[in-house]
Amino acid sequence: MKLLVIANLTKPKVRPAVEELLPFLKSRVDLVAIDSDKVRDLSSTEMDGLLVLGGDGTLLSTARRLGGRQIPVMGVNYGRLGFLASFTPAELMTYFDDFIAGKLPISHRAMLDVAAMGKDISCDLCDPDEVAAKSGRKSTVLNDVVVAAGAPFRMIELELSIDSPSGVSLFGDGLIISTASGSTAYNVSAGGPILWPGVDGICITPLCPHSLSFRPVVASLDSRIVLTAKRLNRGTTIVCDGQDNLSLNIGDRVIIRRSKQTLQLVENPQLRQISALAEKLNWGSSPRYNRSPA
User: Fold this and answer.
1) CB–CB of 213/177 below 8 Å?
2) Which segments of the chain belong to CATH 3.40.50.10330?
3) Does 294 or 201 have the greater pLDDT score?
4) Residue closest to 181 by CA, chosen among 283, 45, 86, 65
5) In the chain, which segments carry CATH 2.60.200.30?
6) Closest to 262 in 3D by CA, of 115, 128, 63
7) CB–CB of 145/236 below 8 Å?
8) Can you point out the beta strands (E) in the chain?
9) Cα-atom radius of gyration of the chain, to the nearest Å?
10) Phi, psi at residue 152, to the nearest 5°?
11) Are 90 and 118 in contact (CB under 8 A)?
């Protein structure tokens, strides 16, 4: 196997881990490179597999940089939660030979394309690629698209439509559009639903809506979602996977659709989804009972 390693050296434990892993890796694979500066073009690098040393954020940026290439990605968690980077450093040593032999389970994680266009662009049926060709504002996400109110942090107004020319108004601090992979991130913190990774759905979760009856909903992954910016703040921004920002102006329309790109994510065979949720989100903890004196 020709293996490329993505190493997030900003995490204190990653640099010594890389030095320790090098002899182990070189004895088993054709090591293409250690990429720590995020400038390598992953869409054309010759490789058969990717090993990501960092956390979920490192894996998210790697997914976007791949540009849709179907390369299996194994994520080793040196961050905090590690939903996507599901292997511990110890489990990397245990399962690495199975990884290079193609024996580990792989899930094909859906991604979303998002593009913004000005009100002067006529493109009612545009897909994100067509919009991007006209406006240049496009990104692809694995986790989520967030319209964040920004400074001076006043309430904003968006119009939301799903597979329809007409929409509904949303007043509040913004909106989260997330995939199943991203449903356990910002979405769940904002009170949105958790989707199983294999569910072809999109979570639409308002941020502090002015109407208490505006609840999170789940739409088909094949839906065409359009957001129209009605009232914004100076700092209102489209935030893609928490890493890539697109500008947003009054009157702009934001088109969000299923991307042609997917991510081949190598899954930890020891980790079941329900147990991972329970462990990482602290489900099932016993109540803290008061103890009566003996």
Assistant:
1) no
2) 2-105+267-280
3) 201
4) 86
5) 111-261
6) 63
7) no
8) 2-7, 30-35, 49-54, 73-77, 106-117, 137-141, 144-148, 156-162, 168-172, 174-178, 201-207, 217-220, 225-231, 237-240, 244-247, 253-266
9) 21
10) -85, 25
11) no
Range 111-261: architecture per CATH: Sandwich (2.60)
CA dihedral (44, 126, 121, 113) positive or negative = negative
Torsion angle of C-alpha atoms 162, 139, 251, 183, degrees rounded to 10: 40
Q: What is the pLDDT of residues 113-163, one digit of tens each?
A: 999 988 777 666 566 777 766 666 899 999 999 999 999 999 999 999 999
Cβ distance 231 to 245 under 8 Å? no
Looking at the DSSP bridge assignments, the partners of residue 231 are: 157
Which pairing describes strands 201-207 and 137-141: parallel, antiparallel, or unpaired?
A: unpaired
8, two tokens: 């997030």
- Strands 49-54 and 30-35, by their bridges, are unpaired
CATH architecture of 2-105+267-280: 3-Layer(aba) Sandwich (3.40)
Which residues have C-beta within 8 Å of that of residue 219, sequence separation ≥ 6? 162, 163, 201, 202, 204, 225
Active site residue 56: yes
- Of residues 284 and 84, more confidence is placed in 84
Pick the catalytic residue from 30, 35, 56, 244: 56
Q: How far is CA 287 from CA 77, 110, 237, 274, 293, in A?
A: 30, 37, 40, 20, 18
Distance CA 157, CA 252 (A): 12
pLDDT of 252-270, one tens digit each? 999 999 999 999 999 999 8
